[in-house]
Amino acid sequence: MGVHCADHYSGKLIGVALMDLLVGKNNDDGSMFRISCKKSQRILVCGKTGTGKSYTMGVLVEELASVGEDIVLVIDPQGIFWTMNQPNDVSKETDSLWEYDRDPKGFRLNLMVPGDPVERYGGEDVVEEMERRGLKIRGLRLNPSDLSPEMWCELFNLDINELQGGMLFKAIRTCYRKHGNDFFLDDISDTVEKLRGLDKTKGAILRKIEMAHDWQLFEESRYREIWEILQPNAINILDLSVIAQGRYGLRNLVVAVLANFIFRMRTIARRREELGLPTDVKKVWIFIDEAHNFCPNGRSTLSKEILIRWAKEGRQPGLSLVVASQQPSALSAEVLTQCGIRIVHRITSKADYRAINSLSQDFLPDDLQSYIKKLTGTGQTLLIDDELEKMVQVQVHPRQSSHGGSSA
Predict the structure, then answer these.
(1) Measuring CA to CA, which of 197, 273, 394, 401 is 20 to 30 A from 344?
(2) 373 membership: H or E segment, kind and range
(3) Could you tell me the pTM of the whole model?
(4) 367 inside domain
(5) What's the structural domain count of the chain?
(6) Which range of residues forms the domain containing residue 356?
(7) Which tens digits make up the pLDDT trace of 32-50?
(8) Do 267 and 197 have their domain in common?
């Protein structure tokens, strides 16, 4: 649900709920356009490179962090959002922030790095300098038990009906029965060695487990709840730029594990809320930049199934989803069709025009493409809200924090 408000008084906005996200100005009449965050949302932000897609996503993250009610998790495959802890110092942007009752400021961040931050960032001096600038950096490691037997097989592209897949599936299930959640890669290897089967099959699986050791993504000594790492009073940024996607889709693996865990925790919490029982598990907004890499159209990834489920079934447990992509046509149609709010920057690809047009509702004009072509400047968007049945041309307001998405 979007909220459209035109009231101003001495630079202050009145008549609007504090639980709304200010996007920017309506280009037609200068009024403010806001998006409600009182309930779960599915939002698409799209546009070709250089039109401000990631910038706009940063504005939404800032707005949500200022409300401070829900957990914010940003999936950052480009490594551009860690600068949000510094105030925006670009004068041509900050000079107009007063029009939106905003000031330049940095935000509290919880920067999560898969593996060892010192190794991932290339040196202790890099981490020390980032910490000196006020960043809280945490290494993130996955528990082997966070992956189901099916996910382990999918990770290595193994069929459970064939020898390797069947043996690995059995080994993981055996670890669950024997250790519960407290098993590690070495436990999987030990279990494989004890299973009946061909030595050649065992050897192939053991080499894969050894390779998983080399990724440095998994906990090695204790089970650690992912909820321990997420901070409710900070913007949680998962910096995936430090690991290559690679043949095994390691970025997708990390996203899949986090999304599955959060979905499960919020489902339990929602049931407690409905029963009037206490819970400290807040609602969650997940922002995914370059989302077509995690939930692509026409092919499978480790993270695709849970993200589609998040889009389709996440409203009831209080899970919101914001996906940004420079190629909306490359994003799964099962996610696209769930996005009741679209923030469209300029696009030029015919395939992307078709993808946006395929979402058209009765209230939209037939020549939607001509409206998109009129978006010429950075930050100019066509904001489409299905629930309000509105299409508004909006100039996104300047960032309060530093934007790290400019080219070197």
Answers:
(1) 401
(2) helix 368-373
(3) 0.92
(4) yes
(5) 2
(6) 2-76+94-140+232-396
(7) 999 988 889 999 999 998 8
(8) no
